Amino acid sequence: MPELIPPDVRWHAAWRDAHAEWGPGAHEDGFGLQAADRVGTAAGFAAWLARLNTEPCTYRWIVEGERVLGGIALRHGFGEFVRQFGHVGYGIRPSARGRGLASWALGRILGEARTLGMSRVLLVCAADNVASARTIERNGGVLEASPDRRVRRYWIENSLSSDM
What we know:
The chain is α+β, with helices and mostly antiparallel strands. It has 5 helices and 7 strands, in the order βααββαβαβαββ. The protein has a 4-stranded antiparallel sheet with strand order 1-2-3-4, sandwiched between helices. A 3-stranded antiparallel sheet has the order 5-7-6.
């Protein structure tokens, strides 16, 4: 059974295994990883996690047993980054896709958003990312009309009475 947990240094080896599966240079949404982060060493990994704790964002890892299966990020506020990329970003390692993990994790992070008082949540995905669009729609996402045909922008009404 999967769990959503805060990032923790004890998961270094399991996270590196997931990271390697994406392959070099691939973007792993949901982890907050930047090009300058040096996660190969224990010290670099710990520094990355410390940086994540300073951001206006709630990061969670999707784990099962001793494996990191993915990550999800709930970005707070409505600054320029959120307007462009949405409140939520997530990624599932390739070998764990197709199990409904992204939809499950999105439902859980929407609960955390409600706790933070976020009654409306923006999600953005590439126009050709059919799996992500389905995940968002399963969680109540309503497509916004947008002139930018490269992306799909969804809003989820995330009221406190919702059972998502």
